[in-house]
Every structure is written in C-alpha cells, then in structure tokens.
Specification:
The structure is a single chain. The chain is an alpha/beta fold and about 260 residues long. It has 2 domains: about 10-185 and about 225-245, Rossmann fold (3-Layer(aba) Sandwich), CATH 3.40.50; about 185-220, no CATH class. It has 8 helices and 7 strands; from the N terminus they run E-H-E-H-E-H-E-H-E-H-E-H-H-H-E. It has helices spanning about 20-30, 40-50, 65-80, 105-130, 155-175, 190-200, 205-210, 225-235; strands at about 10-15, 35-40, 55-60, 85-90, 135-140, 180-185, 245-250. Strand 5 (about 135-140), helix 5 and strand 6 (about 180-185) form a beta-alpha-beta unit. Helix 1 (about 20-30) crosses helix 8 (about 225-235), helix 3 (about 65-80) runs parallel beside helix 4 and helix 6 packs across helix 7 (about 205-210).
Amino acid sequence: MQFDYKDQVVLITGAAGGFGRLAAAEFARAGAKLVLCDLDAGRLEELKASLQGSNAIVETGDVSQEETHRRLVSRAVATHGRLDVAINNAGVAHAFTKITDTDNATMQQMLAVNVIGVFLAMKHQLPAMERQNSGAILNVSSVAGIVGAPLLAAYSAAKHAVIGLSKSAAGEYARKGIRINAICPAFAKTHMLTGMLDQMRGGAEAATQRIVSNMPMRRFARPDEIVQAMLWICSRENSFMTGHALVLDGGLSAV
C-alpha cells in the first residue's frame, strides 16, 4: 500500500530500533520530513545516515524527561513551521517476572518511560498541533494494554495507562482537528522481544514455541506489519478515527 506524507512533519520517539527504525524509513520513503529521537546517540546517527536525502532532525534524549519533548517539538516547529504527526513509540519492557518478584525500581521504570514519557510527549505536541488546527498522534501501547499479561504485570499496567491517556486526550482534542489513537501489537520480532526470550525458561527457541502455541496465527508479528498499520492510522485519509486502540495480535486477544 502506498501512502503520501509529502511535506508532512513526522516526529518519532524510540526511533533507533525496532518499530521506530522501520517507521522512520517508511515515513521517509513516503515523503515525510522527520524529527527523530532516541536514547542511543550512536544508533540514532546510524539511522540518520541510512535515510539518504531525508535531512532528518535527530535528537538524543530520555523520553521520561520533559526537556526532551520541549526540545523535539521546538526543533520541529522552528525548522519546518509545524508538526503533523507524532508517534510516541519509545518504550521499555522487563523480564518475565511474577508480581511478587518485581522490584519497585522495575515498576518505576515502566511508569517513567512508558507512561510519563507519553504524557509529556502529548503535553508538548498538542499545543503545536492545536495552533495549526490539525495533527495526528499515535501512542504505542501493546496487546498487554488491553488484556492481562501474566509475568509482565508492571509492563501491562503501564501499557493499559497509555490507552487511558490516548482515549482521554482524544476526547479533549477531537474538535480541534487532532486525532489521537493507540496501537496495540502483540509479540513482534524485535530486539526487545529477543532479549526477553533469551531469559526465559528453556531458552529462546523453547519460549517461542510456548508463546506462539497460544496465538491463533501460530507466529510472531513481523515489524513491517505493525509499521504499515502506523502509516494508515496517521494518514489524512483515515480522518474519522480517534480515541481508538487498534489491536494487531494475530488473534491472541480474540480467544
């Protein structure tokens, strides 16, 4: 499917890896002007170099810190005069752990990055979009944000909160030309998932078999399947969708 983002300004957090890296490439291919953020400066510069001709703006920053979002939005507006799309993709997960074995630091990290990071992002993105009376925000949640996730309770709680933030903000800004949605992927073949599987009982291969046996499609998602949905959700043609949490989980939450 072909999408046209020519001359649109697209901001992506967590851009150096996983969904973010592929999203940056696909939005660039569709003609977008990119503003990219990640905590990993080296990988962010590698990404910029790979996006030949895109003239992407890159900023190293921690999404749990308000200054990061203030700087990102300011650079987008100062350079391009506007902000059309924001994909709040940066996030962290934790190892599969029972609630009683989850320490306070892990819970605090899940909330700081996955929840406060999205809250602060929208706090600065929304005024810029309101001034132009248009825009689309996509917050990356998870299938763990709509169903329980045994052994991932802290992560699941944070991703549920992302959906609550998205729906609440969508209601506040629906009359201002701004659409706000969430996307809820299940397990996808990214570096984050690989790291989690390696730590599971029996190793990655055995863990993979256990997980996919509970998924109707019997496989993990490909990152491109998630990114194509991102392109559609944020497109101007998808003009009546707001306050929605789109699930892409191979049928996991249906059974």
